[in-house]
Design brief:
CATH topology of the largest domain: TIM Barrel
Shape: globular
CATH superfamily of the largest domain: Aldolase class I
Radius of gyration: 25 Å
Number of helices: 18
Strand content: 15-25%
Largest sheet: 8 strands, parallel, barrel
CATH class of the largest domain: Alpha Beta
Length: 517
């Protein structure tokens, strides 16, 4: 029997800390639910002590997930541990993940503690955490630059005090696969009571070796790996979940290991994260990039046509990319739409199906043929759409080389309509300014990107607008349409709604309504 490797996902904690990847509570919960469908064993939902928002987000995830263990990070401090425990208390399966630095450089310059003081803190505080929660993970921060004998002592003390998992982080992405293999082997052979705990690794990608180091640890006997979807995370990111999983699946002959991951949910999970954060996946990204299964070379194309295994070591279907030739369009009914969704792996409630079918029919009026990527984009937008304060009702724009750009925008808020117009540096800027006048949100545009979902003149345009609010938060708004101006307005308005919901300056005082519905 192959060894079972636990997958510890830290997309919502380490991944979300990276610049540009912040998510609100609703978005975190949506991604957490998908990660449970994907099959991750442990989900690190956040750092409970860091903010009330993080605490509430972890708690909401703990209340929602039924199979996946929900974990909160905590420093080796009793206040942190109490806060983490309160956050995960509702979980069907909860874990506290506590840590302290063990390298000489961290102990001297950050902790200002001696080795004896660190060892004493580990013994006392891990024991305290274990008194609250049966599932305790202990990490020695910067383990790969720590003294090996000291690591053996620290991990031994943690296990003796109740830790059920000991984690070996390559915090700064410094190590190499051979060094990782040797360290895991050394720890297995020397830590007292190691048979009572899982050995985990948490690798950063500063030298581009996070996945290689993670796999080397598995080969050496690690039983848990920590990773993130699309490899997001601090600085250069973490070990990419999809790469680790598909390496283990594709090279079972070498690693002799398996996981609980449903690999056919990989692409969908990657796409959902990209949709939520607004950060596109690089085309040459292994496994989930647009070019991962593309072949341009004539020799490669000829080989693949004869036998896909000539140049493909895995199939698109193995990660959830299905090749469906049936064309959907404006004459397609709900049954055909639902069947395509099921083929793509989506299971929707009747209410969700109705909403998405309406969106599909609206798109079909504008686009002759609907591709699977169009459907996935529609579903992705609907999955993360929160109830919105303001809804776009209509807009007009006027622009030219000899005339100033103008835009008139009509918004609806419950039973009231609001309308205003503005001048701008181009039609999109004018529309954004009209929305600012209508909502008084105080939003400032930080970044704006647009990309095509598919090819062709009638392709869907997907717009991501990053905004900052007067309350100091940064939000990501998304919009989708065959009309790039409409997609832009929807993205900007989506961001404005998030700012207002988070307590923007004038959420309760929009412009005077032009009429009541």
């Amino acid at each position: 029997m192959s060894r079972m490797i636990k997958i510890f996902d830290t997309t919502l904690r380490d991944g979300e800390q990276a610049p540009g990847y912040s998510m609100n509570s609703a978005e975190k919960l949506e991604l957490a639910k998908q990660l449970e469908i994907l099959g991750v064993d442990i989900l690190e939902a956040g750092f409970a002590i860091s903010s009330n928002e993080d605490f509430e987000s972890i708690r909401a995830i703990a209340e929602s997930l039924k199979k996946t263990t929900v974990c909160s990070l905590a420093r080796l401090v009793k206040g942190d541990i109490d806060r983490a425990y309160d956050a995960i208390k509702p979980a069907a399966h909860g874990r506290i993940h506590t840590f302290i630095a063990t390298s000489d450089i961290h102990m001297k310059h950050k902790l200002k503690m001696s080795k004896d003081e660190v060892l004493r803190r580990v013994t006392e505080t891990v024991r305290y955490a274990a008194g609250l929660c049966a599932d305790i993970e202990f990490s020695a921060e910067d383990a790969l630059r720590s003294d090996w004998d000291f690591l053996v002592a620290v991990y031994g003390a943690a296990i003796a005090s109740g830790a059920t998992t000991i984690n070996v982080p390559d915090t700064v992405g410094y190590t190499t696969p051979n060094e990782m293999f040797d360290l895991i082997t050394h720890l297995k052979n020397h830590i007292p009571g190691i048979h009572k705990a899982d050995i985990s690794v948490h690798c950063h990608n500063d030298l581009g070796m996070a996945v290689s180091n993670t796999l080397a640890a598995v080969k050496a006997g690690a039983s848990q790996v920590e990773c993130t979807v699309n490899g997001i995370g601090e600085r250069s990111g973490n070990a990419a979940l999809e790469e680790v999983i598909m390496a283990l699946n594709t090279r079972k002959d070498y690693y002799d290991a398996q996981t609980h991951i449903n690999a056919q949910q990989i692409y969908r999970t990657s796409k959902l994260l990209s949709t939520i954060t607004g950060v596109p996946v690089s085309p040459n990204k292994p496994i989930v990039g647009a070019n991962a299964f593309a072949h341009e070379s004539g020799i490669h194309q000829h080989g693949v046509m004869n036998d896909r295994m000539t140049y493909e070591i895995m199939s698109p279907e193995s990660i959830g990319i299905y090749q469906n030739k049936m064309v959907l369009g404006k004459h397609s009914g709900k049954h055909a739409f639902q069947e395509r969704l099921e083929d793509l792996g989506y299971t929707l409630s009747p209410e969700e199906l109705d909403k998405n079918f309406i969106n599909f029919k609206t798109l079909a009026e504008k686009k002759r043929e609907i591709s699977d990527r169009d459907i996935e984009a529609l579903i992705g937008i609907e999955q993360i759409k929160d109830s919105e304060l303001f809804v776009l009702e209509r807009f007009t724009v006027s622009s030219g080389t000899s005339l100033p750009a103008t835009s008139a925008v009509t918004l609806r808020k419950q039973d009231e309509r609001f309308e205003d117009a503005a001048l701008g540096d181009g039609p999109i800027d004018a529309a954004f300014k009209a929305i600012d006048r209508l909502t008084s949100s105080g939003a400032k545009l930080i970044n704006y990107t647009i990309q095509s979902v598919t090819e062709g003149q009638d392709a869907l345009g997907e717009v991501v607008a990053k905004l900052s609010g007067p309350n100091g938060i940064t939000v990501t708004g998304r919009g989708l349409s065959t009309d790039i101006i409409e997609a832009s307005i929807k993205a900007y308005l989506n961001g404005v709604n998030k700012i207002l919901k988070a307590g923007g300056s004038a959420a309760a005082q929009p412009s005077e309504p032009i009429e009541t519905i």
